[in-house]
Each structure stands twice: as structure tokens, then as C-alpha cells.
Amino acid sequence: MSRRVLMLGWEFPPFISGGLGTACYGLTKALDRRHVDVTFVLPKHVQSSFASHVHMVSPGDAPAHRSLPLPQAVMMTRDVHAAARAELGLPHEEIEKIIHRFSRVTTLGLPITAPEPYTSSLAPSLLRLALESAELRRVLKLPDHITPELRAHLLSETAVQEAVPESGGRGAEPFQPRSSDYGGDLVAESERYARFCVDTVRTLDFDVIHAHDWLTYPAGLAVARMTGKPLVVHVHSTEFDRSGEHVNQPLYNIERRGMHGAVRVITVSMLTRNLCVNRYGVNPDKIDVVYNGVDLDPRVAGLEPIKHNEKVVLYFGRITMQKGPEYFIAAAKRVLDVMHGVKFVVAGNGDQAQRIIEMAAGMGIGNKILFTGFLRGKDIQRVFSIADLYVMPSVSEPFGIAPLEAMGNRVPVIISRTSGVGEILTNVLKCDFWDVDDLANKIVAVLRHPPLQRTLRDSGYWEVRGITWDGAAAKVDAVYDRALAAVGKH
Q1: Same domain for 252 and 111?
Q2: pTM of the full predicted structure?
Q3: How does pLDDT run across 335-369, given as a tens digit for each residue?
Q4: In this structure, are 214 and 94 located in the same domain?
Q5: CATH number, position 190
Q6: Which of 107, 248, 285, 306 places its Cα 20 to 30 Å from the Cα of 216?
Q7: Residue 328, domain extent
Q8: Which element (helix H / strand E) includes 164?
Q9: Distances (CA, A) of 261 to 211, 222, 286, 420
Q10: Are 25 and 53 in contact (CB under 8 A)?
């Protein structure tokens, strides 16, 4: 009999704000290949127009099925469509919208209008920059000739929301000085999510509960208390990563309760493991380090780069304090002081986007830095295909999947030493995030010396081929064994 896992997560493609959604997707696909049955509970209202090969649609997506019982919805598969249509009076396409399965992965969206775990505010000025840049229009697949009607549409509030889907705004809490990655009253939403989970899982069969990050810890604890099933919490980041020393105490308290209430704790790096031990007082014996993986498509990795005369240095990630975008801009200024023919691309969005744009303009390098906003799907491969170098100057990075994606696309990589992924990578250059001069020197060295660039590109590509989600899934499956053994269930 295959293992049955109830997995709790806050984001999943196509709605992702960072590496968490990518990690959940890669892990569930790999667990599926190991014949692990996963039911994934997602607190999202997902519009079907944004769905990729996985339909992530909540009961709130269509008025006709808003009252559909969630346990009934989660058990639906294509094999019972005919019966469902007869019983519920719903057409085939509506049933398809409610639920979709991998062969062993079921995704269930709950009717919660949940905010993004990371703010996705994109200033209209980013779109204005796109309108003025032919190169950026090419990356964003905008037409060369912008009509007045299209210009007005792109700059409208509706277009901004369509480009970067958002749910909810900032809450009214007076104190969120450093936890700016989070928007809206997420604590209240996580509690509401927990109540829905308790109501929803009563009729489901599962052996282990797997909760990703603090937003799902209250739900995991509640379901574990109700069912007696072992809880595994997966720590992708901590409040210290997001906020430095200025932690949001309620979020810290939720993280601590989740880690201590779980039977096993998974961390994405030794860096994060040490944080859990030293800052949260977690017993190191119950922590398992499972590094993230990457899915490589050889057809994608072989994309021909766009022909151009300029070197392209890429920043790909959220524009937040945690990711160190200001160090990227500062290093860009130093590089441009000594090199011509270099463009810097910032792909992503976040609460620091406007400040970073103003910083670049103030340094007089605004015309050398292109801001693309948030990218999805094929646009990610497209931006990697034009890059000569990828830089991740994170202040605190529990793991960091983007460098693996860059290496898989044959792009040389520079990362900060405070990155968990650095624990398993050797064919990258590393520097301290605050040492802008060293970062700039390394960028110049890669761009000026083709042999170094080729070595990082080719050796990195072969190294990352061995860092897979299948390997991560095997380790997570072993964690489930230990969790079940801990509660005396085999």
C-alpha cells in the first residue's frame, strides 16, 4: 500500500511568489514518482485562466459550485466525472476546474481569499520602463509598436493586477518594520486556513501530515491533535531570514510552536538547521536536512542565446531586503565604471522594487538596468537564455533554488556565502553579500575571461544534474518513516 500524505502549503504553481511554490511542485512530482499519494491543501482562490498543466481552482472560482462539499471535491477524479455530473448537475468543464490529479497528487483549493505570502506590489513605473525599452519589450513579449490604446491598458490598474496577481493588501498592523515580505493579516488567514483544514480532512485517509512554512503550522498542529497522525514541518525560511534581528514576535511564536509540536522537522540547509537549534531551541536529533532539487529539461537547457553585443548580468528573485538587491545595484555601478557593453536585468518584484529603481536612477545607471517584473513559465527560460551571468547576493538565503535553475540553463553563477545552496555547490563563485567590491570584481572576471565563464557554465551544468527532486523525495520519504516510527505506527 502506498504512503498517503496530507500536505499543507500556501502556494503552488502557477501562483508562486518565491522558491516555496517551486519547491512544493518539484517535491510533489518526485514523491508521485515514488508512489506516494499526496493530497495538497492550498488556501487559494485560483483562476482557471492562470492554470498551467495543473488546475489549481478553488470552489470560489465559479458560483455554480461554491457550495460543493470540499471532502467530496477532493475525492473526485476523472473516473467519477459521469457520476459527479449526474449527482451535482455540473458540466464536465466545471468538474475539471474543481479538482485535478497527478497520478497520485491531488490538489485542493480552499475558499479563502488569502494574501500572497510575499508582497507582489509592482509599481506602474516598471511597466512604464517596459514601454520605453525595446529589449525589455522583447523579454516581456510586448509588440514593438505600442498603440495609445495598449499603452493605456498596460498602465491601468487592471493591467497591473493581471500582470502580478494579488489578493489583499497591507493590513493595519502598526508594527511590520522588517517583515515586509508579508502583506495583509496573514496570521488571521493562517488561523482561518487551519479551521478549514480541520473541517476538510475529516473524511480523508492519510498517514502523515507535512506542513510547509509557518503559515501552515497552525493547521498542521490542529490536524495532528484531531487525528493523532504524525506531523512533519518543513522549514524553508525563518523570521530571522526575512527580518534579520527585528523579528515579528507573533510570527516567531507560530514558527516555534510548529517546530516543537512536530514529530520531525525538515530544513532546507545546515544553515537553517542551525537557526532552528540556536534561535528556536529545537532538538537537533529530530531535524533532517533535505536539500532542494531542480528539474532539468535538456531541450530547455539547449536554448540558443539571443544574439546581442552586450553582456547581460541577471538578478532573478524577489526584490526584498532578504535577497540583497541593493548590493546587486551597487555592484552594477562599480562594474559599469570599468566596463562598457554590460546590461543588468532585474527579474522579479517585491516591496523594495520602487526603492531599487530610484537607487539605480540616483546612481546614474538607470538606462543600464532593466526591470522585468515577475516572470512565469517560458519567460523564465527566455531571460536565462540571454544571461551571461547570474548573481544572487542574498543577505539570508535558507536555500535558493534560482542558482540551480541558472546552472541548469548553462549560466555561470555567483552567490553569497550566506546561502544554504552553497553547502552543496562547488562550481560557483561565492562572496560576502556586503562586500560590493569583491562582488563587482567577480562579475568583471567572469565577463572578461571566457575560459572562466566556460568552466563555470559547463562544470556547473554537470554538477546540477545530480541535484534532483527525486533525491530530495527519497530523503523526505525516509523522514516519513521516522515520523511514523516515533508515534508507533508502521
Answers
A1: yes
A2: 0.66
A3: 999 998 899 999 888 888 888 888 988 898 888 88
A4: yes
A5: 3.40.50.2000
A6: 285
A7: 298-464
A8: none
A9: 12, 10, 11, 25
A10: no
